[in-house]
Predict the 3D structure of the following.
Amino acid sequence: MVLATPRHKFLVWGGNGWVAGHLKTILESQDKEVVATTVRMEDRESVLKLLDEVKPTHVLNAAGCTGRPNVDWCEDNREATIRSNVIGTLNLADCCFLRNIHCTVFATGCIYHYDDKHPIGGASFKEEDPANFDGSFYSATKSKVEEIMIHYPNVLILRLRMPVSDDLHGRNFVTKITKYDRVVDIPNSNTILTDLLPASIILAENNELGVYNFTNPGAISHNEVLALFKKHVRPSFEWKNFSVEEQSKVIKAGRSNCELDSTKLVNKLKEYNYTVPEIHEAYEQCFIRMAKNGEK
Ligand SMILES: NC(=O)c1ccc[n+]([C@@H]2O[C@H](COP(=O)([O-])OP(=O)(O)OC[C@H]3O[C@@H](n4cnc5c(N)ncnc54)[C@H](OP(=O)(O)O)[C@@H]3O)[C@@H](O)[C@H]2O)c1
């Protein structure tokens, strides 16, 4: 007798968000059962009620307070930031634990900053390295909640950095830096969503746990990104640089710059015959898709 594998059912949190929208689209394109919600994560009663109604096998938590227009907002709205990024995120993980549901959290790698042990071009940050960047309140909430959430046996934490989509959506890192008057020029790890979001579904479906740096391998500087953008998408594009010191005068919160070590992720995905392209190659492919999509 062959027993049918129980069908997975995904519940995506942060339903109106950018990453959540991409996840829903991918799951639908794979013909998977998916429901999205905008229920507030900190509302324990409503969260439990929804879990009991929908009965998901997997929660994908792409909800979080990122600030608008940017993370500077979180500096002045600390209680609201805590409510979402600490109380809400933990509450959702805990409710999933109580209902025996796997919970994937779309977290951030912006909890690190180049230091003496991890200089530009040197050793990159591994999953177990303690966070060393709390220059923004947003990052501080994210690193602290991760330290606690890691103790849950049902939680998979995926650390995105400067996510990039194949269009010029306002949340896309590339869109942001093409709109700034001036940009810094520092190598960073980036997450090309087309490469990595399908991988998040593979990891979730296989009930993988723990923390993964969720970026393409390698690091790429702002100028390298913009040069590739100019090459493939907008030949007329020009930009100006400024230093980190000059940048600090026009922003309220500090910004993290770092390279994450993606070895753990790459090795894990090999088990599922899934490869993630190196970041320069990934950007070439991303901008080729973007140009094909008619973006200018
Ligand atoms: N985009 C990036 O640059 C980036 C980089 C690294 C990591 N991440 C992380 O990835 C996740 C998704 O980011 P995103 O770019 O998709 O952000 P987004 O477009 O702002 O989406 C986040 C969504 O979460 C919702 N949300 C906020 N607090 C909530 C709460 N307490 N309960 C329920 N929903 C809540 C927001 O709804 P409301 O607007 O109604 O509050 C919003 O729809 C976030 O956790 C973010 O920190 C993003």
Observations:
- The mean pLDDT is 96.
- The domain at 9-292 is CATH 3.40.50.720 (Rossmann fold).
- Residues 224 and 280 are 8 Å apart (CA to CA).
